[in-house]
Amino acid sequence: MGRSGEVVMLLYLESQLQNAYRVYMLHIPAGSKAMSLEEFRTEMENDEETFELLLAEFENLPNEQRHTH
After folding, report:
1. pLDDT interval class at 3 (50, 70, 90)
2. How far apart are CA 8 and CA 63, in angstroms?
3. At what angle do helices 14-26 and 37-45 cross, to 10 degrees?
């Protein structure tokens, strides 16, 4: 985290963003509207903690959920 007044940039691979988005999509109830990938990107750039939690959850997904589209 940066000091007060500093801007902190979250650096990530595009594949990490897609993996976090996959987990996010698993939590969206059927019939509910989900953010687009670009909306999700903007949200995650402002919420590093949630991004890290989603990536950690992705690592614990069974293979059949990790590789579905």
Report:
1. low
2. 33
3. 110
User: Which amino acid is present at 28?
Assistant: I
pTM: 0.79
Report how far residue 45's alpha carbon sits from residue 42's, in angstroms, rounded to the nearest whole number: 5
Q: Is residue 59 part of a domain?
A: yes
Q: For residue 60, tell me if it sits in a domain.
A: yes
Q: How many domains does the chain have?
A: 1
- Locate tokens 């999700």: which residue? 40
Q: Residue 25 is part of which domain span?
A: 14-66
6 part of a folded domain: no
**Residue 25's pLDDT band (cuts 50, 70, 90):** very high
Query: Phi and psi (nearest 5°) for 17?
Result: -60, -45
Helix 48-59 to helix 37-45 angle, to the nearest 10 degrees? 120
Asked if residue 3 belongs to a domain, the reply is: no
